[in-house]
From TrEMBL:
One of its GO terms (biological process) is DNA recombination. GO terms for molecular function: DNA binding. Involved in the transposition of the insertion sequence. This is DDE domain-containing protein. It comes from the Bacteria. The keyword DNA-binding applies. Keywords: DNA recombination, DNA-binding, Transposition. Residues 6-135 form the DDE domain.
Length: 162
């Protein structure tokens, strides 16, 4: 099995669907790209385990998993055999916490969600599109940023035309 030398940040957020509370679990890599999004009705060990297995099956094993102090992560990681890879800390998980901001803006514009399936579909597609256009603006020069942005827009238009 391949091993990723990256650092994943895991977090979950409350999302209301028709007045019921659901949970959107997300895995974000060290660069801020959303790796996996998963919607569940519960926020327990079973949901955390299912989310972790899905993410690891798709992206391979990881060196370090940064989480908040939710006990479900620890229990799920013990069951997988990766409890020694977990890191928790006061501000360590800010990358995952901040990754929800574009999602929340779009959610408000859509006037919330009606079905769990539509939330799951939207979350995964929104993450893919956001990953394509999200670039660390502060790390590159303006000329380089604009060239990358133009290339991403050209690729997007090519995908939409097909």
């Amino acid at each position: 099995m391949r091993t990723s030398h990256w650092r994943w940040h895991l977090d979950e957020v409350f999302v209301k669907i028709n007045g019921e509370r659901h949970y959107l679990w997300r895995a974000v890599d060290h660069e801020g790209e959303v790796l996996e999004s998963f919607v569940t009705r519960t926020r327990d060990n079973k949901a955390a385990l299912k989310f972790l297995k899905k993410a690891m099956r798709k992206h391979g094993r990881v060196e370090v998993l940064v989480t908040d102090k939710l006990w479900s992560y620890g229990a799920a990681l013990r069951e997988i055999g990766a409890a020694d890879r977990q890191e928790t800390g006061r501000w360590l998980n800010n990358r995952a916490e901040n990754s929800y901001q574009p999602f929340r803006r779009r959610e408000r514009a859509m006037l919330r969600f009606r079905r769990m399936r539509s939330l799951q579909k939207f979350a995964s597609i929104h993450a893919s599109v956001h990953n394509l256009f999200n670039q660390e603006r502060s790390l590159t020069s303006r000329v380089h940023f604009k060239a990358n942005r133009t290339a991403a827009l050209t690729e997007w238009r090519g995908l939409c035309a097909a």
